[in-house]
Design a protein that fits this description.
There is one protein chain. With 383 residues, the protein is an alpha/beta fold. Helix content is 38%, strand content 12%. It contains 14 helices and nine strands. Strands 6-5-4-3-2-1-7-8-9 form a nine-stranded mixed sheet. A hairpin with a 2-residue loop joins strand 7 and strand 8. Helix 12 packs across helix 13. The chain is globular. The protein starts with a helix and ends in a 12-residue tail after the last helix. The structure holds iron/sulfur cluster.
Length: 383
């Protein structure tokens, strides 16, 4: 099991509190994107396609802390862009931990060794290193050779320094089950504590649009992978068993977009981490003004093939809380990898996609021009 007991216990207590109070929508993970700038340009990434004035923007330490105060999620995941390019990240991490949050920093690991001394190991802190497969596969995925080797070395050095390390693995339609299974086998001996695995989301701004998985292909792929590791029990996932069962086609789940609310330099992103269809100034405004029913599989064209953990993990966690026996059986047997799949949600009545990206960019550029905030001082010029 890749999830530490103290984290499971605290999140469990938080869910119980919210369920007893019958809170209809509550967050589990705050996704904090303090910058969009990255030192890689991966083909499947839809996060970095912005003009330079936007890529130069940073959330300040105070922005990050007040986001964590507004949003009651017990876990904060810091993503981007590449968070290690943010000069004030060590202070952000330290002060979020001091607030009692569980903090994960997602990184492509290119700068990890160099910056590791700025951080201290903590029981509630872990690195999540982006690693999409073995050397050939990962280097192809990030469009640069040598990155896999740097990741492996950074994992080794970080473990030796006492840090907890997860890996974050995104799969596309060129993933081969046998190859993925053998890659997962290599992670424990490397010292990796937990694995987060998910199909990629078909970002409309990603340069490579050919390699995203549809729902049926995703379920078949995960069944084939899990089969090769005692129905997935060979590997320590940093995820709920029911989310893995969903990936294997055994659960019909609607997403929980408010489970991972997202704060970026644009504001609070509507409706979820994957889709930027609008922005709210505060977390409260996000929760109260988003038309949640107009999103999700079956409701909106852009959601048709989404099975990403940031959208469905919260659904799985809540389901597990309500059906502990289902969870217990899964932890003993792992996800079912044969037989009929759970029915899928009909796409018959979904509304067509709206394309709003350029409007948001234009609006932000005007705002930057008017404010001349000079946040470039937060850019780490050394990178
Ligand atoms: S299905 Fe849900 S989580 Fe996925 S993109 Fe749509 S709203 Fe976001």
């Amino acid at each position: 099991m890749g999830i530490p007991l103290n984290q499971m216990a605290r999140i469990g207590a938080y869910i119980v509190k919210n369920e007893i109070r019958r809170v209809p929508r509550y967050p589990l993970v705050l996704m904090l994107e303090p910058l969009f700038r990255c030192n890689l340009a991966c083909a499947g990434c839809g996060k970095i396609d912005y003009p330079a004035p936007i890529l130069n923007q940073r959330l300040s330490v105070e922005d990050c802390l007040s986001a964590a105060d507004e949003c009651p999620a017990p876990v904060v995941v810091i993503a981007g862009g590449e968070p290690l390019l943010h000069r004030e990240l060590p202070e952000i991490v330290e002060r979020l931990l001091a607030k009692g949050k569980f903090v994960t920093v997602c990184t492509n690991a290119l700068l990890l060794e160099k910056k590791l001394h700025q951080y201290k190991p903590h029981k509630n802190f872990n690195w999540s290193v982006h690693l999409d497969g073995d050397q050939t596969h990962h280097d192809k995925s990030v469009c640069q050779t040598g990155v896999y080797d740097k990741c492996v070395e950074a994992i080794r050095v970080s473990k030796a320094a006492g840090f907890r390390i997860n890996i974050n693995c995104t799969l596309f339609n060129d993933a081969e089950p046998e190859n993925v299974a053998r890659f997962l086998d290599t992670l424990k001996p490397l010292g990796v504590d937990g694995i987060t695995i998910s199909p990629g989301y078909a970002y409309e701004r990603a340069p490579d649009q050919q390699h995203f998985l549809n729902r049926t292909a995703t379920k078949t792929l995960f069944r084939e992978i899990f089969k090769r590791g005692r129905n997935g029990r060979n590997w320590d996932f940093f995820q709920s068993g029911l989310f893995l069962d969903f990936l294997a086609g055994n659960q019909t789940y609607h997403c929980t977009p408010w489970g991972n609310p997202t704060r970026t330099i644009f504001g609070w992103q509507k409706p979820c981490y994957l889709l930027g269809e609008g922005y709210a100034k505060t977390y409260k405004e996000l929760m109260e003004t988003t038309d949640w029913d107009s999103y999700g599989t079956g409701n909106y064209e852009k959601c048709a093939d989404c099975m990403v953990h940031s959208g469905f993990e919260a659904t799985a966690v809540r389901d597990g809380f309500k059906h502990p026996l289902k969870l217990l059986s899964l932890s003993l047997k792992g996800p079912r990898t044969s037989g009929e799949m759970a029915p899928d949600i009909s796409l018959e009545n979904q509304r067509p996609a709206e394309f709003v990206f350029s409007r948001h960019v234009e609006h932000k550029l005007k705002e930057i021009g008017a404010a001349k905030t000079g946040t470039e001082h937060l850019t780490d010029a050394a990178e």
